[in-house]
Amino acid sequence: xxxxxxxxxxxxxxxxxxxxxxxxxxxxxxxxxxxxxxxxxxxxxxxxxxxxxxxxxxxxxxxxxxxxxxxxxxxxxxxxxxxxxxxxxxxxxxxxxxxxxxxxxxxxxxxxxxxxxxxxxxxxxxxxxxxxxxxxxxxxxxxxxxxxxxxxxxxxxxxxxxxxxxxxxxxxxxxxxxxxxxxxxxxxxxxxxxxxxxxxxxxxxxxxxxxxxxxxxxxxxxxxxxxxxxxxxxxxxxxxxxxxxxxxxxxxxxxxxxxxxxxxxxx
Length: 267
Known about the structure:
The structure is a single chain. The chain is α/β, with parallel strands linked by helices and 267 residues long. The protein has a single domain, classed as Rossmann fold. The chain contains 9 helices and 7 strands; from the N terminus they run E-H-E-H-E-H-E-H-E-H-H-E-H-H-H-E. It has a 7-stranded parallel β-sheet, with helices on both faces.
């Protein structure tokens, strides 16, 4: 049985761990050759090696989405290794939480530069590869999937920079969907809610998250109508659909993944 992404080439940013790694692994399992990006070069190489060891095609493409030279290099890594680009997943992001009245310029700029400007940087640089040329038009729809957040839709206290950046990603997604439809490029976004194995639950799992008390985590999970927290693989499944031919008629859309609970209040 043919895999849905056979012969496709993907770049996934922020794919060294968490949601990004799950997305890269899922696209590879569905048949895509994947360029794995992370600002941490060791993590990018480890992730690419693990994906290749599972029998898929993968190459490391380390670098910062904020640095234009790095952006060009990661796209070139995909082109040099696999010949073209069909799928771009903009997952790279970072947090620097504070209440708005105490937030520093550095905190604001860091988060907005990575999550919003970084997404724009990749989209702008990738367009020539995604659309092909007039003499060599794409034979199938190309796909851009941007990682938004329910925080970018509903907002959250103590997270104004991240919420604003992700709201900007949603607006950017809808604008590019209108601009690029004529090139047969679908541009959509996924907006996850509370996802296990990310910065929130890292406080419980490996002490790398926000230090949220166990009781708060349990309260959040108890209020999710579907009965559990989401997983990186849940997000990867939505991204895989948006990257597949099944989504050729979907563009400018934002898929919310929160198990029925739109808001997660930490305060």
